[in-house]
Amino acid sequence: MSSALYQEVILDHNRRPRNFGELAGANRRAEGHNALCGDQLSVWLRLEGDVVADVGFVGTGCAISRASASMMTTAVKGRTREEVDALFEDFHAMVTGAETPHRDMGPMMAFSGVSRFPMRVKCASLPWHTMRAALHGEATVVSTEGGAPESGA
Ligand code: ZN
Asked: Which of 88, 97, 146, 149 is the most buried (most CB within 10 A)?
């Protein structure tokens, strides 16, 4: 995909975010903030056993964070906790430029270019950190400001 197409994918998800809105029947929730950019995010999950049965988010912020949140929700829905963690590892390695993805990341490939812009890496990864906080019950508030280790562990 060309960078122009990548940009189009991001703009489309920003304009029409998928799974946008508070999720009725959610049993997990977490908040995320990126003070550097001003992104704010709430993520709701409905966990059934080990599976993310449903997911929703509400967020304000830049196009990157909203589009990443939108794509994250479509990517994790119906997956097990283990699959979600593996997907996060691949996404994180891609946006930090640590390695090229081993698998087809679908529309999320649109974020492969953000590794050149450290501020944007935080925007793109905030939804994933927030979703994982909800998934693992680690914290209800996630901040990309020095709080969470960059490894995402
Ligand atoms: Zn941002």
From this structure: 88
